[in-house]
């Protein structure tokens, strides 16, 4: 681990992430109160994920909004590496992306990097990855994106759409640049080393589709930033606008530290989990509580490090309700068992509903695919 006690790359997040430091390290900008207001002016309300600073950092978001106000619409671009099933941590940025699509009434390109996940994984076959591609697409559709304004781009299937752009990009990026940005090593397979232009290409695809320079806004967790950094450096030389970003934090897993991860399934709630499993995972969750009830009553607990608290806050509670919970937690009025019960009661109907939408999505897949 680095001297900072945490590392963030597109393929792994370790340690206790200090988001302020990350802004400095990556050279992004914090979403200021003024910028929040500017968004609010257009959308008519401040989305809780902005207010709670779940989306906390950006590049050129202000520029994209200014252009939008002049009548120059942007495209949204986001994506998914199909390395496993979808858990609640994945849904947050997608829910926010749908909100942006609805409010700004804009097109969305959703890339599935099946190539990336095949290249990255030591054990998964291409068939395994393809199975996850199919499953993940159901989750994406279930979030409720507008089928008339959304295209899902599967890299290995739709490569023709992006290959010419990605070649233009690849020619302009050196090995030393990607090595520094992504931390590639001599032992990294050359597929991975050659992959970044494939994820960069959809940044410019809207300009190609529209036949004129078209701004792109990428909502994504901040671990994807290295891709955009190298893409931004070459965009203008290629005659395209620099892609703008709005970065989210990571949803904590139900374990102690780090983002919710499919590689530690006990600490992630999947959209396909049964109610028994959800109960069990939440019962076993880490919390910010004291070792005994007596101590908790006396000393209070720490909601800041408690995933149960953050799940309730991000998914299910108003700011007011959540602040009240924080107060009671700190004061020892509330025990962890009660919060876990509240989270179970909220999560089960949420997943039940989501599963219904996922079932319905099975008949809609065609509408979302490129051709
Ligand atoms: N690399 C991302 C992942 O592993 C998938 C992805 C492709 C993506 N394009 C994107 C994510 C654009 C966010 C925005 O999940």
Structural features, described:
The model has no long low-confidence stretch (mean pLDDT 94). The chain is built from 19 helices and 9 strands. Helix 2 runs parallel beside helix 4, helix 9 runs antiparallel to helix 13 and helix 16 packs across helix 18. With 371 residues, the chain is of the alpha/beta class. It has a 7-stranded mixed β-sheet with strand order 3-4-9-8-5-6-7, sandwiched between helices. Strands 1-2 form a two-stranded antiparallel sheet. It has 2 domains: 249 residues, 3-Layer(aba) Sandwich (Rossmann fold); 95 residues, Tyrosyl-Transfer RNA Synthetase. The protein is globular and about 65 Å long. The structure holds tryptophan (TRP). The site of tryptophan has 13 residues, from strand 5 and strand 8.
Brief sketch in words of this structure:
The protein is an alpha/beta fold and 371 residues long.
